[in-house]
Design brief:
Largest sheet: 6 strands, antiparallel
Strand order of the largest sheet: 1-2-3-4-6-5
Helix content: 40-55%
């Protein structure tokens, strides 16, 4: 959908009510009016699609990850304690970037640790993931920034576009994050010792899941079976 600027004559009382509703719903006047009109006309805006995806992700991870923040029509953040020594924290963030109907999902993984040893493990873990990903995606969709708090960035420019079916995007992001989360558990639980085969299998399970119908509920469990079986 393309947005343009229009001039409208509205009653002041209506605008006042709209502003109150926008404040309560953490949005702005234009966005709320857009959503109200879209709903009345039976249309779905890119922002509404994004919000549906975020709510689905929140539900799908309700029993495994802690939701630390949800920004309406924009992003969601999860917190996690690693299975490693002093239980360091790691943050998963899925946000939608771009303009209008061209927005797409981006996953960011980061940790604020200053431990040289732990950052070495992050380097090694994401090296494994990057090598697996390099065989299947464009090289500019995945970034591992060792110089910036060891931040891992994975873009989904095509498969995670809001122009696609909401269930497909939700399923893709759910399965990918479950794969990363399970792989990270395996890696740090065993401190990187002889785990590449298990991580490769988890990644293959993720690839296989892309060819299956989108899950209807939060019961997407196939990617954690290898981890639980160890």
């Amino acid at each position: 959908m393309k947005k343009s600027i229009y001039s409208l004559m509205l009653f002041d009382e209506i605008v006042e009510k709209i502003d109150q509703m926008a404040y309560v719903n953490y949005t702005n006047r234009s966005q709320l009016i857009n959503e109200i009109l879209a709903e009345h006309l039976g249309l779905v805006t890119p922002e509404q699609k994004i919000q549906t995806i975020l709510e689905t992700l929140k539900e799908n991870f309700s029993d495994t990850l802690s939701v630390s923040q949800v920004n309406k029509n924009s992003s969601i953040q999860f917190g996690k304690s690693l299975k490693y020594k002093y239980r360091p924290k790691v943050k998963y963030s899925i946000e939608f970037v771009g303009v209008g109907g061209q927005k797409y999902a981006v996953l960011k993984i980061s940790s604020r640790t200053k431990s040289v040893e732990l950052n070495h493990h992050f380097d090694e873990f994401f090296r494994i993931i990057c090598e697996l990903e390099a065989k299947h995606i464009s090289k500019d969709e995945i970034i591992y920034e060792t110089s910036a708090n060891h931040k891992f960035v994975r873009e989904f420019r095509d498969e995670g576009s809001v122009s696609r079916d909401v269930k497909e995007v939700s399923s893709l992001l759910t399965n990918y994050l479950k794969m990363i989360d399970a792989a990270m558990d395996i890696y740090f639980e065993h401190e990187g010792s002889d785990v590449e085969g298990d991580i490769k299998q988890l990644y293959q399970n993720y690839l296989d899941s892309k060819h299956q119908p989108p899950a209807k509920t939060a019961d997407t469990r196939m990617l954690t079976r290898t981890a639980s079986a160890r």
